[in-house]
Amino acid sequence: MDFKRPDIFRPPSERNSYFLPLTSGCSNNTCTFCAFYGSKLQIRDADDVKREVDVVSLFRRTGTCLPTVPTLAYAVAQDWDGKRMFLQDGDALIYPFRQLREILQYSNERLPHIERIGTYATPQDILRRTQDELRELRELKLLIFYVGVESGDDEVLENVRKGVDRCQIAEAGRKAREAGITLSVTVILGLGGVVGSEKHTLETASILTEIDPDYAGALTLTLVPGTPLYEQWKHDIFHPISPFQSLEELKTIVEESSFSDCFFSSMHASNYLPIRGRLPQDKGRVLMELEQVLEAKDPSLLRPEYLRGL
Ligand code: SF4
Fold it and tell me: What is the pLDDT of residues 116-128, one digit of tens each?
């Protein structure tokens, strides 16, 4: 079957990257809240990936477009400064190790100005790799993993069928950091619903403290039609928290977590209020911003529902 190039679904900080698809879908497609739920994993042929690297290299050196190559590759390459590359898709780290290493070596040779390569990685993907393998990837400039932690509460992780527990997520985080790979993690406000809100929030602050990532981002749960969690909501089984409750959760996470040096943000389009700061330095200022909005309880201060995105 021909490889179908996936839509671009990326972390905000990868906006200037070249998006190189290695896979399509996610190998762990069971998470009940996720747009990748039920997606079919496709692994792209390594030679096909290398051909794309050749095409981009040629385009950058000479501006030549080959008529046989999909225009999307050129559209992505058009404004690229050659410095960052992002491996698609939901968890490109699932790619067979030997071929992944080959592709990274090839990319570094053909695109010598690359400074950083990034990928989404599930905790399972990281745990599957040995420490030496992770170090090898780092040497080849795979310098940042984006990992969905979602929650530190085992009950929530089980309910949403994340496929790993809190201990495994923390272990994966430790392993990546020990290999010298920058870790950017996300957690999801509201994932415990109304009933599980307090425990989800406190346990999430606690796992963030344990992992102590370089970057942590809060997303706000968005119920995606076609996912089991959406159906649970429709059938009155799952009860989402309100926008202001999501800010309460955010405030508690900032208050209760403790980092060595972490850039923390809620800039993602799913959130009702963007905050950002380096923690611990900016903790007081971030908490004050949240308290002001929570006290005012003015909905006009929040991102309107129609502007929220996944
Ligand atoms: S949350 Fe992550 S691991 Fe789960 S289905 Fe979505 S992309 Fe895959």
Answer: 999 999 999 999 9
